[in-house]
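Holo prediction. Input below; ligand is iron/sulfur cluster.
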Amino acid sequence: MRYEGKVYRPPSEARSYILQATIGCSHNLCTYCDMYRGVAFRERDEVEVLEDVRQASRRYPGVDKIFVADGDALVMGTERWLRLLEAVGAAFPRLRQVSCYATAANVLQKSDAELRELRRAGLSLLYIGPESGDDVTLKRVVKGGTFEDHVRAAAKVRAAGMKLSVIVLLGAGGVERTVEHARETARLVTEMDPDFLAALTLTVIPGTPLRRMMDKGRFELPDVRGLLTELRTIANEARPTDALFRTNHASNYVPVGGRLPRDRESIVATMDAALAGEIPLRPEYARGL
Ligand code: SF4
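Structure of the complex:
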């Protein structure tokens, strides 16, 4: 149960056993991201990872959820994944969910048969963060995938029987693309049709390429009103079949939640109240990444 560097996981995995099978992110180019800046991507030594599993099973035999880190762990080869899934399945009798972060490219690099095999072996949930559905924004932030790539990846995930959690990033298009970013993100959510949808709010972090663009006047973050308007547009226009929607991440100004599209009206009403100044926003000092 050793960890290297800072380990990130989605808020919903707070009670999961975090198993670090890879270090860093194989893409590591998104302009706003500082999670693994300067960290060379690598797969951890497999013997060490499996030893971690054995140690964890002795200390925490009741583990029922595992999140496999780091930033895009799906990139590991399928054979290696299958050995890992077999090990955790044997080590934790109550295991009911194994999840990881994935990029669209990670998914598209695997065949449908491979994804089905991974699902059968226990990999049940993927977190994909397209951040935006606007292709101009996706290119500018160097996400490494287009609107269509994310739609194709989501279809493969669903066809394999895995659950899909989609993460979008308010503010990613800057002031210049705020309208397109919100509308295209809503359209992408509809097309990806996730089981879970989370919205985070962009924080421009010192040392990132995005911060340097901002310093040169080439990127401007929308103000709070602009960010709330983006969230309202996404909640109002996205039409997934039935997605659990959350903005409870600490980066957001207003925590809202519910199911989309079922609770659309009440979520939009909350956003309208926030825009009208009728409900308090999370103060800046209480916001986090
Ligand atoms: S894919 Fe994720 S972890 Fe990797 S650079 Fe982009 S935001 Fe960061």
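The longest strand covers residues 123-131. That is the main takeaway for now.
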